[in-house]
């Protein structure tokens, strides 16, 4: 027999904890959704003429991303979504010494709060969370730690090679001459030298970010599900058994005292 236990302290810490445990996946997806929407909010606010709130959000997101404009999506320009080369941004008024401070213009549009890679990372993590929500009752297993670490390798190689190329001044990632040799320069020059949509650099940032995002979701979420949905049941059983034991002891003590 199970003895129901009721709290009498209203909405206390225990109640909040129960809500978090029961709805942890919903909260996870909502949090990621807000992060992604928050990155879209700054260019939207700027386009609406609300520069103050827009700049505040850009500043907040700058702690999470480098926000380099030549590696970012721009919204509300000539096309709904666009990216621009370094040279085009300088013509538009970007200070080459302070590129992060360039937010965009009414003619070009305004950049997202995230660059290409983080946009792909957080968006794919959100997609992974939503897919996991549909499949969670099938008890999907998380990927191995080794598999998860390996998913970061393409990102490290791509980002690291860009960093070395720029810091050393060698510029081997600016033109991707090595790739032209491998492919026999079969594609347009812009594919090798630009950072816009359809270029190799954009493709690598997007793919490596998406790979890390989706594997993060499928590494973390099954572990969280096991922790959140396994532990409460065990705790409830322990509390119920303890309550029954205490009730039996109290009953025996009462019978003895009456005897």
Entry summary:
This protein is mainly alpha-helical. Helix content is 66%, strand content 6%. Strands 2-1-4-3 form a four-stranded antiparallel sheet.
DSSP summary, beta strand count: 4
Considering DSSP H and I runs of 4 or more, what fraction of the residues is helical?
A: 55-70%
Uncertain parts? 1-8, 232-240
How does the helix and strand content classify structurally?
mainly alpha
Total helix count?
11
- Can you summarize the main beta sheet? 4 strands, antiparallel
Helix-strand pattern, N to C? HHHEEHEEHHHHHHH
What is the mean predicted local confidence, pLDDT? 85
Ends apart, CA distance between termini: 26 Å
Q: What portion of the residues fall into strands of 2 or more residues?
A: 5-15%
Strand order of the largest sheet: 2-1-4-3
Q: What spatial form do the alpha-carbon principal axes imply?
A: globular
Rg calc: 27 Å
Task: Give your account of this protein's structure.
- The structure is a single chain.
- This protein has helices at residues 13-22, 24-47, 51-62, 86-91, 116-135, 145-151, 153-168, 172-175, 177-183, 189-193, 200-258; strands at residues 72-75, 81-82, 104-105, 109-115.
- The protein is mainly alpha-helical.
- A 4-stranded antiparallel β-sheet has the order 2-1-4-3.
- A hairpin with a 3-residue loop joins β3 and β4.
- α2 crosses α3 (51-62) and α5 packs across α11.
- The chain is globular, with a radius of gyration of 27 Å.
- Residues 1-8 and 232-240 have low confidence and may be disordered.
